[in-house]
Specification:
mainly alpha; 83% helix
């Protein structure tokens, strides 16, 4: 029951956001986007995804190989227990 009470507002917000996106896309008129604009947009999307996935891969790599533990242990040794 608790999951349902959490999911209902989230799903309704998602539906409202998608509706607003579609409404705004159809309501705003302007000149058509040239082919170079679409190419630039897709290159930006792909570049952003590559950078994001690469950074997440580095986070998981450093976590699995113990690089984070060394910093965590060194930090805890410096702070005295209260």
């Amino acid at each position: 029951m608790r999951k349902l009470l959490t999911l209902i507002p989230l799903i309704s917000l998602l539906i409202a956001a998608v509706w607003f996106m579609i409404y705004s896309w159809n309501a705003i008129e302007g000149p058509p986007i040239p082919t170079t604009g679409y190419v630039a947009m897709w290159l930006g999307i792909v570049f952003s995804l590559v950078v994001g996935c690469g950074l997440m891969a580095l986070v998981f790599y450093s976590s699995r190989h113990g690089y984070d533990e060394a910093v965590y242990n060194e930090r805890n040794e410096r702070q005295p227990d209260p």
